[in-house]
Specification:
The complex is a heterodimer of chains A (152) and B (170).
Chain A lengths: L4 H9 L6 E9 L4 H25 L3 E3 L3 E4 L4 H16 L5 E6 L14 E4 L10 H21 L2
Chain B lengths: L1 H4 L4 H28 L1 H4 L8 E6 L8 E11 L2 E13 L5 E4 L11 E2 L9 E3 L4 E3 L17 E7 L2 E8 L5
Antiparallel strand pairs in B: 1-9, 2-3, 3-4, 5-6, 6-7, 8-9
The chains are: A alpha/beta (152), B alpha+beta (170).
C-alpha cells in the first residue's frame, strides 16, 4: 500500500494483514554539482525502486513518503527522528519497520535504529540506457523482496 | 398588385423558420444517441490495447514463466510507463494462458512454485495464499477468487497481451 487515499482506505479494511512499514531514506543537498546530481539520481532511483517493491508486496507493506535529510546532517540526530517515526508506526500497530537506502552512512548507526536497515547497492543512473536501468531496478526489486520476506 | 409581390406571407415565414429551428433541435437531440448506437463501427479495428510482451509463442511451455513488459498509460495529461507482469504457460488443452500475478487477497505478486512446500502451485509470499496451476485459488488459503487472466493473441509468432478479465472458472 502507498500513502494515498485509495490505498489508505484499503489499509483500513485490512489492517491486520499489513504489518510492515517501508521507509525509503534519501540524502538531499544543493551544492557542488557532481555530488548534488548524484544525490538527485539516487533519490529518483530510490523512489522508482520503492514503488516497484511496493507493487510486488503491496498486500503486506505500507510504503511511506521518502525520508529526506541534508547530506551533511549528523546521522545520530537523524536516527533519533527516525525512531520517532518508528514509534509512531508502532502505534498502529505495525510489527516490522524497514528502512531502505543507497546511503551507506546509516550502516554505522544501524544498531541505534529501532527498525531494520537495508542497504542497497547504488544503481548508476549516469550514462546508462533506460532499458538497462529498468532491468537493474527489476533485478534489485526481486532480490530485495526476497530479503523483506525473510523478515516475515 | 403589391400583395402578389410578397411571395412569402408573415405566417409562412414564421412557419418555415420554426420548422428549420425545430429541425435543428431534433437533429441535435438525435446526434448523441445515433453516435452511440453506431459507435462500435467507428472504433478502429486494430486492437490497440494489446502489447508485445517480448516472448515468442514457441518458447511457451507447460511450465509457467514470468514475463515483464511496459505499456504507455495516459492518465489525463500525465503520461507514464507502467510495468506489467504475467505468468504464461500452455495448459493441458494446448492453449496459452496468461495469468495476472496480482493476488486476489490483497494484491501482492504471486509466483509459480514460490514456496518449496507447495510445488506445482502459485504462492503469495504475503499471507501464504495459494493457487493451483489453472489459476484457481486453493480453498482454505486467504484468496477467495481465482487469478485474473490476460486477453491474449498471437501475432507473427510473438505473444501479445491485452486487458485483464476475471477467470472464467470462477
Amino acid at each position: 500500500m502507498k500513502w494515498t487515499r485509495v490505498d489508505l482506505q484499503k489499509y483500513e479494511q485490512a489492517k491486520e494483514y499489513i504489518d510492515t512499514v517501508i521507509v525509503p531514506l534519501a540524502p538531499f543537498q544543493i551544492g557542488a554539482l557532481d555530488a548534488t546530481a548524484k544525490n538527485a539520481d539516487q533519490y529518483e532511483i530510490l523512489t522508482l525502486f520503492a514503488r516497484e517493491l511496493e507493487k510486488e508486496l503491496m498486500g503486506r507493506i505500507m510504503l511511506t513518503p521518502t525520508y529526506t535529510y541534508i547530506n551533511s546532517a549528523e546521522r545520530s540526530e537523524e536516527a533519533e527522528r527516525l525512531n520517532q517515526w518508528t514509534a509512531h508506526f508502532n502505534e498502529q500497530p505495525f510489527k516490522q519497520v524497514l528502512y531502505i537506502s543507497f546511503d551507506p552512512s546509516w550502516r554505522k548507526i544501524a544498531n541505534d535504529l529501532e527498525g531494520e536497515f537495508i542497504w542497497l547497492p547504488t544503481i548508476p543512473l549516469k550514462d546508462a540506457e533506460p532499458a538497462a536501468i529498468k532491468d537493474m531496478i527489476r533485478d534489485q526489486t526481486m532480490q530485495t523482496a526476497e530479503l523483506v520476506k525473510s523478515f516475515w | 398588385m403589391s400583395d402578389e409581390k410578397r411571395d412569402i406571407s408573415r405566417r409562412q415565414f414564421l412557419n418555415y423558420t420554426l420548422t428549420g429551428v425545430g429541425g435543428f433541435m431534433a437533429a441535435g437531440l438525435l446526434i448523441s444517441p445515433v453516435r452511440m448506437a453506431i459507435d462500435p463501427v467507428l472504433k478502429s479495428g486494430e486492437g490497440g490495447d494489446f502489447a508485445n510482451v517480448g516472448l515468442e509463442v514457441s518458447e511457451i511451455t507447460s511450465d509457467p514463466q514470468r514475463v515483464d513488459w511496459t505499456v504507455d498509460q495516459v492518465d489525463g495529461w500525465y503520461e507514464s510507463e507502467v510495468n506489467q507482469t504475467a505468468w504464461v504457460y500452455r495448459n493441458d488443452d494446448d492453449e496459452i494462458v496468461a495469468f495476472s500475478p496480482v493476488c486476489k487477497h490483497l494484491g501482492c505478486f504471486v509466483s509459480w512454485e514460490g514456496n518449496d512446500d507447495y510445488p506445482e502451485e502459485y504462492f503469495c509470499p504475503c499471507h501464504n495464499g495459494r493457487y493451483y496451476k489453472n489459476g484457481v485459488n486453493v480453498p482454505g488459503t486467504p484468496p477467495l477468487q481465482p487469478l485474473d487472466v490476460y486477453e491474449q493473441e498471437e501475432r507473427d509468432g510473438m505473444l501479445f497481451l491485452g486487458n485483464i478479465r476475471p477467470h472464467e472458472e470462477a
